Amino acid sequence: MKIEQVDVEHLAREYGTPVYVYSLAVLREFIAEIKPLAPVVRYAMKASSNWRILQEMRDQGIKIDAVSVMEVKRALRAGFKMDDICFTSDVFFNSGEADYCLENDVFTNCGTLGMLEEYGRTYQKLGRGRAGVSIRINPGEGAGHSKKTNTGGPYSKHGIWYQNLAEVHRICGQYGLKITGVHIHIGSGGDMEHLKRITGKLVEYAKEFPDVKIVNFGGGLPYQYRTDQPQADISEYRPILEERINVLEKHFGRPITCEIEPGRRFVAGCGYLIGEVRALNHTFDESGKRLDYVLTNIGFCHLLRPMAYGSYHPITFVGGSLGPEQDLIIAGPVCESGDVLTQENEEPVPRKLPLPSAGDLIVVGGAGAYGHVMSSNYNTQPLLPEVVVDGDQTLLARRRQSLDDILKEECPPE
Predict the structure, then answer these.
(1) Which residues are catalytic?
(2) How far is CA 382 from the centre of its chain?
(3) Cβ neighbour number for residue 119 with a 10 Å cutoff
(4) Which of 204, 239, 262 is the last residue of a domain?
(5) pTM here?
(6) Torsion sign, CA atoms 342, 348, 351, 353
(7) Count of Cβ atoms closer than 10 Å to residue 62 Cβ
(8) How many angstroms separate the most distant Cα atoms in the chain?
């Protein structure tokens, strides 16, 4: 198996396992697919903040959606200009962050009335900064492949409830703010019907704010992880957005900037997580049926999505003497029963795969989004290296952590 022109066996020998690997060729394909959809396209960098991926986005003219002030600063270090960045959150992580945004002219998108009010109080206190601010609106519905990825509706913490927009006007009047942007994002499980309906709602909300210049329709573009099914065609999203902006420009009688901000669709497909099969194990269920486990060195401290969301990832074994296909449960080394790569609804789900042997490689696909960025040092496991492949060239973009790296922030007594 190769990633572009590089054998996965070579990558495993050169960089060890587990290791994250990103294909720039695949990343560029998805950028080329997404970029024509809207006049301004942002990358939701929470999906993967690897510096080489950020650099590619910057070079291709993609702007940034950051969800923390630290992400704003990280994007600046990657070479983006402040004008390229929008900061979207439901809260300022601490009181100093509102000061930072106003003192540094950060375009801020407030996802709660409380955040908008804090922005206003800080604007009034400092006497300077952007009076123009954006709001994220919760339209009363959402979409997600699990409840944990649904970011709209009554059970989502995200966004100002659509029936509370009069309170937005009150806060703006009190502190001298103007709503120059409106934003919506309903989650990562939407399809074109969801997107068509929700963009129509945002158009109506935008009409309530006479100073609107920017309408951001969010992300949520579908990505298909199952390799036996085709990727959703997202090209039809462009005429939907064009129609929405035409309606707004006729209403306001001036140009309106249309933005979108996908994350997962950009980077999921470019990432792979290469690990090693360490052992085989088996049990018997209540009926006496044998359950076969393949234990690997890829744990939920490396890839959290299957345990957190029951997410599906394609899995390939690479070895010289793979056995016949059979039902296998693929698991990791972490000291938790939930450390299973093949699961659904918090239960292990066998998958028909060729039986590997200890020492064979496992390649987990679709690992470019919410992979490395959600990893941890649980079980004192080091954060993994990240390698970028471009044709037949490889680049170590992040080295593997050492124990000293993990412990260096600790403050033991003298």
Answers:
(1) 335
(2) 22
(3) 22
(4) 262
(5) 0.94
(6) positive
(7) 22
(8) 73
